Amino acid sequence: MNFFWVNLGTSYKEVFKNKFLWAPQFTLSKNATKIVNPGWSSVAKVKQGDIIFGHRDSAIVCIAKAVQDVYASPRPESKTFDQWNEIGWKVDIELTPIPQPIRDSEFSDFFIEKYNAFCSPKVFTVKGICSVFYMSLLPKAAGALILNYIQDTDYIIDDVVPAATSAKNTERETIIKARIGQGPYRKKLVEIWHGKCSATDLAYEELLVASHIVPWALCDSSERIDPYNGFLLSPNIDKLFDRGLISFTDEGKLLRSESITDEILAKLGIAKNLQITAVKKQNLPYLVRHRELFKFTG
Q1: Which of 64, 90, 198, 291 could crosslink 52 through cysteines, CB 3.0-4.6 Å?
Q2: What is the extent of the structural domain holding 7?
Q3: How many Å apart are CA 254 and CA 198, to the nearest integer?
Q4: CA angle 284, 246, 104 (to 5 degrees)
Q5: What is the per-residue pLDDT across 182-207, written as a single tens digit (0 to 9) for each?
Q6: pLDDT class for 27, splitting at 50, 70, 90?
Q7: If you ran DSSP here, which 8-state letter would residue 96 be given?
Q8: Residue 298: inside a domain, yes or no?
Q9: Quick check: is 192 in a domain?
């Protein structure tokens, strides 16, 4: 599953009504030279099951899921914007609005720091505002980051759980509960860490969060319920870890994003020498992936 960002602009109502995205494959210059726009080329990469964040008026307003692979299609009659070439790419989608749109300002600073350079094309300009393009292919970690800001994502569970339709109801329920850190997944994490925060030894079980190391949306079914793909963390540490603002070395030493200063740690009550002293060997493959996803090199 890949993640994309699409700027809907004036096509917003049309996309909601007709449930498809469309962009030209190319356009022609005045001297008949073929021009391929990077924002259109990204549409050609969409596959069935990919998640597309719909952006409008400086906010992510909806999530779309591709119901089949992109395919070549002439400009649909319903496409009111007629300044584009007739030959194009079409993506049929299922689309759900986000009840509380996610403002760019909520995540753009960290997004720019970590992921903007790896987006194709770049999502934000040097001034921190959304670039003028149609669609961008995002790094998977960037997609996971945006999902973390979206509270009501239950409707995409069937799309991101492999073979969910053939799974028994009890198995599917276990996987769904693991997404929110509940059920057997949480119970096993509590057992492994003896009811204490993996990083601080805080023994206040009711407050501790069963946090995935590799984000739930980027895992297969077995990884989603594997307690070794998780730490039991205090809420403030969980929030930073979950959003890729901090990570840990194989030895459990704290790694942090450039945006997480000593002052921020102090205000959050987190020590600069924070360490998970009992990292399990089964945690290590997941930690490697976490560091790779969130671009930690230390």
Answers
A1: 64
A2: 3-157
A3: 12
A4: 130
A5: 778 999 999 999 999 999 999 999 99
A6: confident
A7: E
A8: no
A9: yes
Task: Supply the pLDDT for residue 267.
Answer: 94
Calpha distance 122→173 (Å, rounded): 38
Give residue for tokens 């008026």.
57
What CATH number has the domain bearing residue 148? 3.10.590.10
Picking from 157, 188, 203, the residue at the C-terminal end of a domain is: 157
**pTM of the complete model:** 0.80
User: Cα–Cα distance between 48 and 2 in angstroms, integer?
Assistant: 10
Does residue 20 contact residue 91 with C-beta atoms inside 8 Å? yes
pLDDT tens digits for range 50-72 = 999 999 999 999 999 999 999 99
Q: Of 128, 157, 186, which residue sits at a domain end?
A: 157
Range list of β-strands (E), 145-249? 209-212, 230-233, 246-248
Same domain for 127 and 218?
no
Quick one: CA dihedral 71, 77, 79, 84, positive or negative?
positive
> Per the structure, how many domains does the chain have?
2
What rounded mean pLDDT belongs to the chain?
A: 86
- pLDDT over 70 (residue 283): yes
Provide the phi-psi class of 29: left if phi over 0, else alpha when psi is between -120 and 50, else beta.
beta
Does the pLDDT of residue 157 top 50, yes or no? Answer: no
| Greatest pairwise CA separation for the chain in angstroms | 72
How far, rounded to the nearest angstrom, does the alpha carbon of residue 67 sit from its chain's CA centroid?
Answer: 19
